[in-house]
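Researcher: Good morning. I'm working through a list of sequences from a screen, and I'd like to move beyond sequence-only analysis. For each chain I'm collecting a predicted structure so we can compare shapes side by side. This is the next one on the list. No need for commentary yet; just the structure.
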Amino acid sequence: MAHVSDLIAEDIELYLKVHENKSLLRFITCGSVDDGKSTLIGRLLYESKMLFEDQLTQLEVDSKKVGTQAGDLDFALLVDGLAAEREQGITIGVAYRFFSTDKRKFIVADAPGHEQYTRNMITGASTADVAIILIDARKGVLTQTRRHSYLVSLIGIRHVVLAINKLDMVGYSEEVYNRIDHDYRVFAQKVGLRNIVTIPMSALKGDNIIELSRNTPWYCGDTLMGYLETVQVEDAAEQSGVFRMPVQWVNRPNLDFRGYSGMVVRGSVKPGDPVCVLPSGKESRVARIVTQDGDLDRAVCGQSITLTLTDEIDISRGDVLATTDSPPGVANQFTATVVWMIDEPLLPGKPYLMKIGTKTVTANISELKHKVNVNTLERIAATQLELNEIGICNLATDQLIAFDPYSEDRDTGGFIVIDRLTNNTVGAGMLHSALEQSHNRAGWQTITVNKQARAVLKGQKPFIMWFTGSSGNSGSAIAILLEKKLYSSGKHTYLLDEDQVRRGLSKDLGFTDAARIENIRRTAEVAKLMADAGQIVLISQSSPLPAERKMARELMIQGEFFEVFIDAPVQAAEAQDLEELQKGDRSKIHSTGKASDNPEIRIDTAIQTPEQAVEHIIRYLTQAGVLS
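Model: Good morning. Structure tokens for this chain:
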């Protein structure tokens, strides 16, 4: 609601004009659970006299019924609107509130503190200019404090208020205040946060919210409201002369008019300005700037307009109109940071939808380089991202898209990831740069065809699974069942059975030890080529010695070779030897194998059926991150 002003009674038109011309500040409150974020926002509204009488009356009733302050006013209830929030005393969704003072208008987002709702915090922070990081003076800097601070830095918020809250519960200790301030600034410097103002406060008691508190005579800085009313936020998008407008709609009401509608997200534009259309690169000039209220002489950042051009150009929804002297980049492969938002993990190679600006394309993570430990900022090797984890990756799209690095422009550098089946938003990301091979705009000529690209096309991770063990081990039967299982789930597979190889590729070989080793080498080389084509290769091969399988393993990169060693009862091995001897095939006689030191999977056919063995293998591969 608007701040109550004497001008309302004296000159309502002047009041409305003044109110309309106030600057708008968007800020977010974040931090760990129970740090007092909702209480702080409620206190801001209360102390600024921005509540109606009926709201105060309802607050008193709710405070006695579901409040957490023993009947006293519970200001958090002004923000926590969901029944589940009031019952638990926590924030779940992002709560937005609008209010104003004589100096400024504000939109505040109250982000949840629980780790499982970190995804909601990202939503609130995506449009914020200032972040208020709350810390409970009794607990100091916590994991979620670091997580939110790291995300604030990633999202590009450069103004941070460190609100050391609940200082009344530690006797308004200056020593506690100084210690927390020091600990936080050490971490903040590592994540690139520089512009930090620290304020000691008690949101519940109102200390240093609107007026400086007598309980902290050692503090002489701004109050929270004083800071929010005066902080100067540089709007680079508005001040930049670099024009950007993603096309949201091709406006074609009749045969005589064709316009391109959207919001100016950066810079400004006026009739006569040269513009280019990305990703096509076609150029033209602005003919008119059309709005419902008539044509404009100039449009600036934040305005929704319709542009007409002097030339007929093929332009579609999702294209970007930009200034010709400083256009955005165009690419289909990128380095990016991704924050994962659902319980089902992100899997490299799986196709998703990616929405950037007004354009939606098919995309996949072609390579997950590492994930980030938000406590230590350590880079950790990973094959997938779990809920709330942050990863650095290479990303590929099925179309060329126009973009700016996120550090330069949130609107043309930020994106969301959408599940293709459920249409749910599953991740958020920031583009950093184009990969070198995707800069050229010559279409298919820019594509690098390699194992990674082939795997992306197939939507899977290639690997070799080598079945071995004692005679009569049912390895072939298990491999056949496994291939059927993988094929039915949409995987591209091939089964290389030893008998098949012996009849063709190795039909010139005998059954000596040297011939057996050569047969294994040939099989491994073929499997390597198939894996390079993006296939999942299953091999059922007599290879009794670990050194022979090591030779095959060394042809593949780490994480793409899995040994399945199968133990079989002695009776089965003897029966197998007799059968092969009767067939005249001595290649498998006395081939009781010895397991490698650390085979990835062991199967005991004495206690597991082939079907159970397949389920065991599927579980292992899923946990290893090579199967979705």
